[in-house]
Each structure stands twice: as C-alpha cells, then as structure tokens.
Amino acid sequence: MRLQQDHPDAYVLTIQAMGSQIDVRWIVGDGSTRKSSQDIGQILQTDIDRWVDVMSDYQQDSQVNTLCRQADDGNWHTCSAELWQVLMLCDQWNRWSEGAFDASIGALTRLRRSKTIATQQQWDQALYSSGWGHIQWDPGGKKIRLERPGLRLDFGAIGKGFLVDRLGERLLELGIHRYCINASGNMVFGQVPTPQSQGW
Fold first, then answer.
1. What is the spatial distance between Cα 193 and Cα 30, in angstroms, rounded to a whole number?
2. Burial category of 160 from C-beta neighbours within 10 Å (exposed 0-12, middle 13-18, buried 19 and up)
C-alpha cells in the first residue's frame, strides 16, 4: 500500500491487487470525515484484501477456488455471504447479456494463460467443464452444485468492477463524497470536486 498526499486536502492510495494497480483518489477538505488519511487507507486495504480472498482465481486458497475444488464431488456446497453476493450478480449479468457474460469459463482462461501450449484434448475438456447452465442454485441455503467436475469460476474484469463499487460505497460510509477509483479502467466516481479543490 502506498499513500501519497498531493495537497493538504487530496490523497492518492495505490494498491496492487487482482492482477492490476488500484488507484483511489479522494478529497477530505470539507471536514466530512473524522478519520485520518492513514486510517482511511488501512480500511480500504482491509476491504481489498477481504474481497481478493473471496474472488481471486489466482489465489489458490481463495473462497471461490476452494469452493470449486470442493464442488467437483457433485454435491451441494454452501457459499459465504460475500461470495454468494458476487455469484448472484454474475447470474444477473449472465441473464441480462443473454449468456454473453459467463463467469464459469475459468477452465478455459486458465489454459489460455498457461505457459505451455494446450492440446486439443485439453481445450475440449475445458470447454466441457464450462457453462453457466451447469451450475445449480439453492437460494435459500446459499448453496451451489456443479454438474460437471473441473468447472472453475473466473470473475475477470467484472470482479475488478465489483471491487471498485464496494470501495466507493466504503468511502461514502466514511463521509468522503469526492473520490475517483480506478482498477485497470474499471472506474467509479463520487461527486465532482469544487472549483476550489486542489490536487484532483
């Protein structure tokens, strides 16, 4: 975590997470928060770490990777409240896009970024293990069941967008209304700074 002060009222926090650089800029000159800039930075860092633990497909012991490995047995498995929130949004986006957005193609994306050239058989197996329609849902119990072993979830850029939305909500909770958050082009903005604001 790197926190810089561009001006007495303007701060920039830079954090490496989810395969990208996350920049958070905010202005606190209106006195709307009692938190120090260091406290704010630490709160945002904690939030990022928590959501990375939920969504990362790079982190082997993340909640999503652990769930997928366990669900290879074809049984029902319970999701945490945070992971269920992400999955329900992915389901909404899948329906809204008529299937164009599909977070279940993790087996394919893993082959794509592999350092070795995959065989046609490996591609065929990864394709077989992909598809949002192969996930069954139990909304009441916040459970999922994978119909095919090897199905892996990859939230990709949608995960980054989800994260910056949560960080924006956190800044509002902290009383900060003028901010800009950017994670590899996934951006969210608060109120426009006043003409007197410096360092924006």
1. 10
2. buried
Mean pLDDT of the chain: 90
Contact predicate 44/15, CB 8 Å: yes
User: What does the pLDDT look like over 91-113, one tens digit per residue?
Assistant: 999 999 999 999 999 999 999 98
More confident position, 29 or 89: 89
Looking at the chain, the whole-number percentage of residues with pLDDT higher than 90 is 66
pLDDT single digits (tens) 145-168: 999 999 999 998 889 999 999 999
- Tell me the torsion sign for CA atoms 121, 122, 126, 127: negative
Q: Which residues, 6 or more positions from 27, have their beta carbon under 8 angstroms from its beta carbon? A: 9, 10, 11, 176, 178, 179, 193, 197, 199, 200
* Cα gap 147→150, rounded to integer Å: 10
Check: CB of residue 129 under 8 Å from CB of residue 149.
yes
pTM, 2 dp: 0.85
- Dihedral of CA atoms 168, 172, 174, 180 in degrees, nearest 10, equals 50
Task: Return the number of other C-beta atoms located less than 10 Å from residue 163's C-beta.
Answer: 27
Please name the residue that has the structure tokens 């009222």.
9
- What CA–CA distance (Å, rounded) separates 162 from 18? 12
